[in-house]
Structure formats: C-alpha cells, structure tokens
Specification:
Blueprint lengths: L1 H12 L3 H14 L4 H13 L6 H18 L4 H18 L2 H17 L4 H13 L3 H12 L8 H7 L14
Helix pairs in contact: 1-2, 2-3, 3-4, 4-5, 5-6, 5-7, 6-7, 7-8
Length: about 170
C-alpha cells in the first residue's frame, strides 16, 4: 500500500497522472479498506478538475469501511478511518450532519484507547479542520492524562506548553 502510494506520488510529480490514477484505482480494487489510496486518488481528481468523481469515490470508501466495521465492531482503525472519510464527505458537501457523524466515530475510536497517538492525531486533525476547538482541548486533556504522552509535540502545542522540558544551558540565563 505505502509503496504504491509513494510510486503514485512520484508519477504525479513527473507529470504522469494517468498512470498514477490507474495504479491507485488498482490499489482501491485490491485493498478496498486502504483509505490513503482513495484520498490520494481524490486529490488527483480534484487537481485535474474532475471534482465530480471525488465525493462518489469517498462514499465508496465510506460504504466499504461501514461494512468492515459491521463485521468487526471493535476495530478502532476502521472506526477512525470511517470517521475521517465522513468528515471529509461532510466538508465537501457542506453537510454538517455528516461531519458530526464522522466526529462522533472519531471520538468513539479515541475513547476506546485514549492513549493512542494515532487515534488522537486523527481526532485532533478533524476537529481542527471543522473548528471544534473546545472538543480539541478535551481530547488533549484526555490524551495528556497518560504520562508517556507528556512529551508529545502536538499535545504540547495544543496545551500551549513549552515544547522543551530540558534544562537550559548556562548561556540561556
């Protein structure tokens, strides 16, 4: 998956969008749960002016992840990815109900494991994109309750903390 999306990036950078599109369409067909391929394909469609294909593509991913989640309801990765794509569909269609549904999925996944940096970043990204700053603060507080997360740069940025807790050198005084 990752190698193929990197190859598609290189193809786009070299001006070969058609091959990149074919590669990503193949990847979507073989790995229908691999959300990165859908987003990358959607970006290419958008960049080439073919925006009418973007939302239907994302809805296909939404349907796929919904089906996967029905089979494995405790899978936080499917729930997070579903939440992200719902937020993106809602943003693109200006449907606040879909955005709210996506944020709820992201919260549910994060609350299953509030120590997960992966879940935290996905939730925070979606909340930042949708202007939900009070909720963003609540997520940061929950994530920060775990001592291991105290040095996380994103957490410290959200909480307005000094990123470096290292002692200052004498010349800094």
């Amino acid at each position: 998956g990752i190698s193929a999306t990197r190859a598609a990036d290189r193809m786009v950078q070299s001006g070969d969008r058609d091959r990149a599109i074919k590669l990503l369409q193949y990847l979507v067909g073989v790995y229908p749960e691999y959300w990165q391929a859908y987003l990358q394909l959607g970006e290419i469609y958008g960049a080439t002016g073919d925006t009418a294909k973007v939302v239907p593509l994302y809805r296909t991913l939404d349907d796929t992840l919904t089906a996967y989640l029905k089979r494995d309801p405790l899978n936080t990765y499917f729930r997070q990815d579903l939440g992200l794509i719902e937020v993106e569909i809602g943003r693109r269609t200006t449907d606040s109900a879909i955005v709210a549904k996506g944020i709820a999925s992201l919260w549910q996944a994060f609350e299953q494991n509030p120590n997960s940096a992966y879940a935290f970043r996905k939730l925070v990204t979606a909340m930042g994109q949708t202007g939900r700053y009070a909720e963003l603060q609540r997520a940061a507080d929950m994530f920060g309750e775990y001592k291991i997360n105290q040095s996380d740069p994103l957490l410290n940025q959200i909480l307005g903390r000094n990123q470096s807790s290292a002692p200052r050198a004498p010349e800094d005084f």
